[in-house]
Design brief:
Layout lengths: L1 H40 L3 H21 L4 H4 L3 H19 L7 H4 L3 H24 L3 H19 L5 H4 L2 H39 L8
């Protein structure tokens, strides 16, 4: 009996070591992915590439460490790391209007990819508002269309949360962000059109024969 218990203890020690190592790696993935997303908003591709590479390396380490321990791999923290990494990759792709990489392209689970896509679309709000502040309305409208397309696509994924890792909540959150962004974008565009109309009216009033009273 003692031998059996001892052997079981050794196996648990291996599992615990794998958990600690993968948990540490996942923390790095989440931090580096967040930094990569901020670099996208700052229009800093060099820093983005650096942080994304750091996130990718740590994610592969975490995936490899948990490969022989399914219960640890499905404990939740690896999914969170994959989701954050997917969000970083997909945010850049959406901002650049590039073809989105598939889950297999970036080696993450489908639920992680879907939730990462929802959060990446939400991240476009910040980028869109930055473009509006810089009077880049065409770019802002393009980003809004991308947000809408992601939302509409995700609505078609109608499976239980146990299968999608809570995608419904992520999609609902995206809808709220989308509606706020629609309001902000509409208000800004109306103000710009009004300002242009006023400027045009002012210019016409200064033309010869115009009424300057």
């Amino acid at each position: 009996m003692a031998a059996l218990v001892g052997q079981a203890g050794l196996e648990l020690a291996k599992a615990n070591a794998a958990r600690e190592a993968s948990l540490s790696a996942c923390r790095v993935v989440i931090r580096a992915s967040g930094s990569a997303i901020r670099a996208v908003h700052r229009l800093d591709p060099k820093h983005y590439d650096l942080k994304l590479a750091e996130a990718a390396a740590s994610l592969r380490q975490a995936q490899l460490t948990t490969k022989c321990f399914p219960s640890i791999a499905h404990a939740g923290f690896l999914h969170d790391a994959e989701k954050e990494y997917a969000e970083a990759v997909l945010t850049r792709a959406l901002v650049d209007s590039a073809t989105l990489p598939s889950p297999s392209d970036i080696d993450v689970g489908i639920p992680a990819w879907l939730n990462g896509l929802a959060e990446a679309a939400s991240e476009l709000r910040r980028h869109l508002l930055d473009r509006l502040r810089n009077d880049q309305t065409d770019a802002a409208e393009t980003l809004f269309v991308a947000m809408q397309e992601v939302y509409e696509a995700l609505l078609g994924v109608d499976y239980p949360d146990a299968v999608t890792a809570g995608l419904r909540r992520s999609t609902d959150a995206l809808r709220a962000v989308l509606e706020r962004t629609r309001s902000d974008l509409t208000t800004t565009l109306i103000q710009l059109r009004l300002q242009k109309a006023l400027d045009k009216a002012g210019e016409e009033s200064l033309l010869p024969g115009g009424d300057t009273r």
